Amino acid sequence: MANFGGHAIPGTFFLLYGLWLTVKHVLQHYWRTSQPKGRQGMPPFLRRMEYVEGGFKIFASFVGMMVEQFVVDGPHARLYDRENSSWVKLMNWQHSTMYLFFGISGIVLIASVRTKRVPVGADRLALSLALFVEGFLFLYHVHGREPLDAHVHTLLLYAVFAGSASTMLEVFIRNNILLELFKADMFMLQGSWFYQVGVVLYPLNGDKWDLKQHDNMMFVTMCFCWHLALSLILVSFTASIVWLTTTRFSAKGRDVEIGMRNTSSKTSSQKALLEESDEE
Amino acid sequence: MANFGGHAIPGTFFLLYGLWLTVKHVLQHYWRTSQPKGRQGMPPFLRRMEYVEGGFKIFASFVGMMVEQFVVDGPHARLYDRENSSWVKLMNWQHSTMYLFFGISGIVLIASVRTKRVPVGADRLALSLALFVEGFLFLYHVHGREPLDAHVHTLLLYAVFAGSASTMLEVFIRNNILLELFKADMFMLQGSWFYQVGVVLYPLNGDKWDLKQHDNMMFVTMCFCWHLALSLILVSFTASIVWLTTTRFSAKGRDVEIGMRNTSSKTSSQKALLEESDEE
Amino acid sequence: MANFGGHAIPGTFFLLYGLWLTVKHVLQHYWRTSQPKGRQGMPPFLRRMEYVEGGFKIFASFVGMMVEQFVVDGPHARLYDRENSSWVKLMNWQHSTMYLFFGISGIVLIASVRTKRVPVGADRLALSLALFVEGFLFLYHVHGREPLDAHVHTLLLYAVFAGSASTMLEVFIRNNILLELFKADMFMLQGSWFYQVGVVLYPLNGDKWDLKQHDNMMFVTMCFCWHLALSLILVSFTASIVWLTTTRFSAKGRDVEIGMRNTSSKTSSQKALLEESDEE
Amino acid sequence: MANFGGHAIPGTFFLLYGLWLTVKHVLQHYWRTSQPKGRQGMPPFLRRMEYVEGGFKIFASFVGMMVEQFVVDGPHARLYDRENSSWVKLMNWQHSTMYLFFGISGIVLIASVRTKRVPVGADRLALSLALFVEGFLFLYHVHGREPLDAHVHTLLLYAVFAGSASTMLEVFIRNNILLELFKADMFMLQGSWFYQVGVVLYPLNGDKWDLKQHDNMMFVTMCFCWHLALSLILVSFTASIVWLTTTRFSAKGRDVEIGMRNTSSKTSSQKALLEESDEE
To answer: Where found in the cell (chains A, B, C, D) (predicted)?
Structure first.
């Protein structure tokens, strides 16, 4: 990961995952609010989205682990080098560990959609743990670096742990669209901040940043807030578009193939439900 | 901000905002308790208050950003000075960033009053984030100052983060008058403490405080508690006056122009409701 | 306070207050569980207990403040000595500040029993703030002392802040007997630990403790756990006695003067309610 | 405890306790979901499990305390050695204190199963306190050790305090199978980590670990995450087996001796309940 690309790849993944979560949760929220009370099953389309998400997580984390292990200068699944009495490529092992937990969260997600036997909220707990482990490994990763280097990673931890905490809250406060969008936002923030870390540590134009200058640290702190603001705008924008599209779409076409229930009295009953939605 | 006035201006703003929040939330609470259960809409008068608050926040934060940028010795929207390889007036940029988030919270407030599509509680989340960002920037701002200087700013952070946390709680525990008044109180405390910081760092009578003396730090800690006590008294006092005035007012004049529902059986039914209000 | 007596007096107060809270909350719990659902008013006897508690707090904190100010070597309400450019007896001022907040919590307690206009939970918030202020002042009090001296005060803070946090929780989770007894327990722990602090810093037999020895610190940490165990036993014991006495008392005498409702079918209906009480 | 065995014994205990908790809570969960709403009593079999658990805890902690005190080089109930003015075997006293609190939690568990007079949740509060005291004593135990030694103990504290926090949450959020399994998982993690601590500090093959090497610390941090992953898999696996066994068992044999209610319409009504269980 010691180059710009090594930060841009996870950054892109997290950004896209944040976008995906925004879209998914807005669709789920639309479904919840347009359903009469009591009905709680998920329509096939939304179930399929969960399968896709879970499957992708399992696949991507498996590929990630393989790449980290069997890349040219990787550890090739060797952990300890007896000859030199030293650990082999601990950094790659750490990244593999992170991927492992995202993989587990994918498995739990699929399991909890497939069967009612998985306790409710287990998928969110697994995702929260994956984020926690990521942050936990980063935390002891930062030790003994240059001030600015440590600082940009510390800022990343704010996004990671805030995401972990809000996902943990979702275990107990389910189907709260605000919490779900906040989680999506934290993934986006994490993604865009990965890019920023790449820019600061491995600048593309070659001008090295002074890793000890206090002004650089002040700027970077402020810059993190700008990323937060941008991610908030991005999430709101995406959510609005998805919401408006879904509303218009399901108002026009009666027989929507995405499997959402669609009685002829829908648009009006739906309005009534939206009217009441702030009483929840 | 490096003078007394630079602390008195935000202090005044926060004090007045705390007062405004006290008045607003007591009126909202009056409305809630005097309504029969089930009815949840907000009367036009209270909606208008939200618009005024949101509009003012947007306006004030826009003006604030402009002033910070285009004041004589400001950065004039220049961020990096290539010639000297240094950041331009980072302090002004930091303040602009703080204003930006209060501006965002104003936009979200108006949006959430206008349309039901904004998730419930989004306005509180936005305000909580604005306070968090303020505290977050202050946190890394305090680094490397004289002990007393750092300490008075640290004390400010207690008010800021307590306000942020209680506003975050309001996302989940809505319409709890105690939480709302606590938030108002934290704004007042922050406002009055800004004055105190001004007095300590830029004393009006010119007698400089010894920034290293331990006794000064002990006094300042205690003084923060006095500000807390005063703000509690101020909030209770304001809330009582608003409550009593509203009760008397709506009991006398039948046809209140503020748009509150006013049936002839109001005063009695309202009493009954108050009687029950501790069961919530 | 720089002697054994100065620690024994607050210790005694806190111990007795913990006992009082145990008794009060068990009686309130008995009343709640023996009432049919829906009835929520408090009987005159329990209201009188609240008045006594509030009144005593106001009286004791007023006396405390007066004593701290006008004792022979006190500050006599003088805060700053212009001649020597120094603060006058800051320790006494700090103690006065602590008393002030307990006084405020007494006022709020009485107000919230007298009138329904005080928001529900305000008394608990006030008590929580009083404990927070006590801990907050202690926190900056400990700075720069000998290791063992600092450590015994830090341990005190565990009891103080745990009490503050659990009382804050009571604002939202009301009438939970476990939380109420935990609060009482934290007061007892605080009280008994005050005695221990006195014993460590001002031993009665004159054998000074070595304030730097590591073993002493280890012992003191463990000793704090013993105090916790003892306070738990004391609270359980007191609560059991009060509960058993009340049950027997109200079963024997039909017409209890303490004003609790007493229908002839009580004992049986009460049993039924206890049977159900774990469903809450 | 200064050898491998001294870490393997508590490790084994905690591992087995984690397994026991998994089994117990899955059985309780099965009972809850297979009962019609309203019925809340516990069947004799589950009550007996609680008695066994409580009794074992009391017995084991009593034996533990006796061993720590009266082992050959133990303190033999002497706390202070007046001749050498030093504390006697503080380590043994600390372990005794830890056992004491687990013993108390056993007593509270039995009491809360026997009588309805013990407040609901008291058993969980007692267990949470036992874990807190364990972590609290460890926290001040770690001071001034070699970096790696301190680090492996710090990692242990994550499991201990996470367990304490989640058990505390159970006081308020009762009968949540996910929280209960998480608690079981934290016990397992603690147990397996005790083994790891033994391996690191007292390696069986005799190759001493370098207690100052940074790479060892990085490995150990990552290794903790692997233990977490393994414990998660172990808990899920155990829970699935118990659940499947119970379901099959109670479907085949009509008249189950474990005392679970067993009407002829059970299997179908149970399915219906499972269908609804995600609405909770």
So the answer is: Membrane
CB contact under 8 A, B225 and C93: no
- What are the Cα distances from residue A75, in Å, to A65, A71, C265, D19, D218? 11, 8, 78, 35, 15
Q: Which residues of D touch A90 (CB under 8 A)?
A: 215, 218-219, 222
Per-residue confidence (pLDDT) for residue A232, from 0 to 100 = 96
Secondary structure of chain A in HEC code, one letter for each residue? CCCHHHHHHHHHHHHHHHHHHHHHHHHHHHHHHHCCCCCCCCCHHHHHHHHHHHHHHHHHHHHHHHHHHHCCCCCCCCCEECCCCEECCHHHHHHHHHHHHHHHHHHHHHHHHHCCCCCCCHHHHHHHHHHHHHHHHHHCCCCCCCHHHHHHHHHHHHHHHHHHHHHHHHHHCCCCHHHHHHHHHHHHHHHHHHHHHHHHHCCCCCCCCCCCCHHHHHHHHHHHHHHHHHHHHHHHHHHHHHHHHHHHHHHHCCCCCCCCCCCCCHHHHHHHHHHHHHHC
pLDDT in tens, D250-280: 776 544 444 444 443 444 444 444 444 433 3
On the question of pLDDT at A257 being above 50, the answer is no
Close Cβ partners of D227 (under 8 Å, ≥ 6 residues apart):
D189, D192, D193, D196
Q: Which residues of chain B have pLDDT under 70?
A: 1, 36-40, 252-280
Return the sign of the alpha-carbon dihedral for residues A8, A9, A12, A14: negative
What is the least distance, in Å, from the CA of B65 to any CA of chain C? 35
Do A and B count as touching (3 or more CB pairs closer than 8 A)? Answer: yes
3-class SS of residue B87: strand
Q: Which residue of B has its CA nearest to C93?
A: B222
- Express the helix, strand and coil content of chain A in percent, nearest 5 each: 75, 0, 25
State whether D225 and A97 contact (CB < 8 Å).
yes
Tell me the count of A-B CB pairs closer than 8 A.
60
Residue B120 to residue A277, Cβ atoms within 8 A: yes
Q: Residue C178: which of D40, D93, D121 has the nearest Cβ?
A: D121
Question: What single string gives the DSSP state of each residue in D134-171?
Answer: HHHHHHTTSTT--HHHHHHHHHHHHHHHHHHHHHHHHH
Nearest-CA distance D19 → chain C (Å): 27
**Mean pLDDT for chain A overall:** 86
A278, B40 in Cβ contact below 8 A?
yes
How do residues A20-39 score in pLDDT, each as one tens digit? Answer: 999 999 999 998 888 766 55
Provide, rounded to the nearest whole percent, the portion of chain C with pLDDT above 70. Answer: 87
Please give the single-letter amino acid code of residue D10: P
Chains B and D touch each other (3 or more Cβ pairs < 8 A): no
The answer for residues whose C-beta is within 8 angstroms of residue A154's C-beta and 6 or more apart is: A142
pLDDT of D84 over the 90 cut: no
As given in the structure block, the two tokens for residue A262 are 């669609």
- Residue D263 confidence (pLDDT): 42
Query: Is B218 close to C90, i.e. CB distance below 8 A?
Result: yes
Does residue A261 register a pLDDT over 50? no
Is the pLDDT assigned to residue A271 strictly greater than 80?
no
Residues paired with D81 in a beta bridge: D86
pTM: 0.88
